[in-house]
Amino acid sequence: MRGELVRKLTARGLATGGAVLAFLVVALTGATAWGLCLAVAALAATAWERRVRPGADNVAETTLIAGGVLVGYARQLDAGFDPALAATALVLLGLVLVTGPLRQAGNLEIRAANLPVRAWVPQVAAALGDAVAALVGLLALAALAGLPAAVALAATLLVGATAAAVALDLARRRFRPSPGGSAVARALRRHQPEFVLHFSAPPGSDYQVTMWLPYLERIGRPFVVMVREPEFLAPVAAATTAPVVYCPTTRSMDEVLVPSLRVAFYVNHGAKNSHCIRFTQLTHVQLHHGDSDKAPSANPVSAIFDRIFVAGEAAIERYARAGIDIPAEKFVVVGRPQVEAIEVCSRPARGLTNPTVLYTPTWTGHNADADYCSLPVAETLLRRLLDRGATVILRAHPYTAQNPASARQLARLHDLLAADRARTGRGHLYGAAASRLTLTDSVNRADALVSDVSGVVSDWLYSGKPYAVTDMGTDGDRFVERFPLAAAGYVLRRDMANLDEVLIRLLDTDPLAEARWATRRRYLGDFPADSYAEVFLAAARRELDPAWTPPAPRAAAGAPFSAAT
Asked: Does the keyword Heme belong to this entry (predicted)?
């Protein structure tokens, strides 16, 4: 989060400082050409700030830059008072002032993807800030080229006419709404969705919903995805053929939650979930976006849902261990369908030569209590793995870059692996190359795992292969009590004092091979591999149609290996 703050402060400083500098150079010096070039650079800075801070208000900066450009334009023409340039200034000032309100009004409109509707007004309203910035930039270039003021006026009137059309349409929607609701609402009523996936999260969290989309599609019923932040509309829509709708307000939710809906699914405990929970005609089901022993995996907010789908009995025990009293009938054990394509190891992995090791450091969390990140001590770990001839797949958490210190530590690890690859030819995977692999691909390629406390360990557990878990806290002997999944792995202390011992057990002797299978059943359910995901699908269909009774799943055949193997 500190990295995000640094980016926002940097963007703010560049936008404001650039605007002031450009205006001063044009207005107070004779370096008109330099001032106009600085104005273009300042406009680029304001555009970047709007990317970093979507709600940024650049009215003051844009006004300063536009004023400087117009002064520079008048100097370049050197023709005294020019009515066309004066008219350009008036229209441009109006555009600068109305862009923010129009964008805010457009952000209150429903937007949709994968639906046969065209809603151009909200998109144009959202892009008006960039359009005005581009217009001011064009005026600066026109001034440098010495083009007549009539050219500037024509371009400004064109953007002004577009803004006026947007304003009129937004006003019509607000004061004279269609009796049948918006075009999106009408299209959804025709689509007849039976369930909705409600999603709200910080930027960069779309993985939480995209991991579930293939399984929601396999339910075989029409559905809709509702996102509450506009930046998720495009990436989520690209991951599914189902309709995806951006609902900015609770009023817009009233339109989108059409009568055919029966169930609402959730993948996290976002605060905006409460906006959807209020619709009592729906059955509300929490899916989670991972299963781990992290504190957030036993969130007391889970109690507000009608059903809590969990991977295994260990998740239910986790809530009880945290002192959270939730009625047993709310829990439904469905396994973790995302692991179905993970290859299960049929025999213990012992005496590995030149192994492939997957290393998955997590991020630092929102607060110190949730900081399980091992990146500060990871260089020692990786060097020892390389000494053993290991090929490393390094997959960092998507939020790692939000912490500047973590980002620097990760960069050093990338440099270390790059140097070893150049020296030995081993095919280490990290950075963009590792991110192109799915987690399933990474698990299937690796012989062993070293991970921080995270949901990756639960997914890896399905493979039956050995793993180590880093203890980055101060729990000592209580670490396994707090994180029981670590009991079936090898605990690596934060000072790395037991690193050699852990690597011998992880890669050579693997004494916990049989214990892992019992842990696997507790954490991921005791379901047959050839129909593993069907357990979730059957549970979801049962919520959609309580009268439907699926056939009982066959019991798993037992552990794939024994201690005698």
From this structure: no
